[in-house]
């Protein structure tokens, strides 16, 4: 079992940077594949980025080159570094965990979720 708590969201201007954190409690964080999803108002939750237990990463095309996912297994923490933020990045951001690396873009394959943190990009 993992409990996940996101933090670091806020109101920023276009072009700004923000780093989200996801603190995990429970056993075995280092063996879980982790991901960030987001949900904008009136839209479905969507995949943002994924990192395997060994550190391999992938992200959706709209954030490639701007967002970076990372993890610190010693601190049981997942990160999402977001640069060059745009208004369309506005959403609630969720971290999620599962043991398998397969089908990692699919929401229903994840076992544990955080409560989300709001990111608003507006001038």
Write a compact overview of the structure shown.
With 123 residues, this protein is mostly beta strands. 0% of the residues lie in helices and 50% in strands. The relative contact order is 0.32.
Write up what this structure looks like.
This protein is mostly beta strands and 123 residues long. Helix content is 0%, strand content 50%. The chain is built from no helices and 11 strands. Strands 2, 4, 5, 6, 9, 10 and 11 form a 7-stranded mixed beta sheet that branches. The chain has a 4-stranded antiparallel beta sheet with strand order 1-3-8-7, with no helix packed on it. It is globular and about 40 Å long. The model has no long low-confidence stretch (mean pLDDT 96).
Q: Determine the strand fraction and express it as a percent band.
A: over 45%
Number of distinct beta strands: 11
Radius of gyration equals: 13 Å
pLDDT below 50 for ≥5 consecutive residues: which ranges?
A: none
Sheet/helix structural class: mainly beta
Overall pLDDT score: 96
Number of helical stretches of at least 4 residues: 0
What portion of residues is helical?
A: under 10%
What characterizes the major β-sheet? 7 strands, mixed
Order of helices and strands: EEEEEEEEEEE
Distance between the termini: 40 Å
Overall spatial form: globular
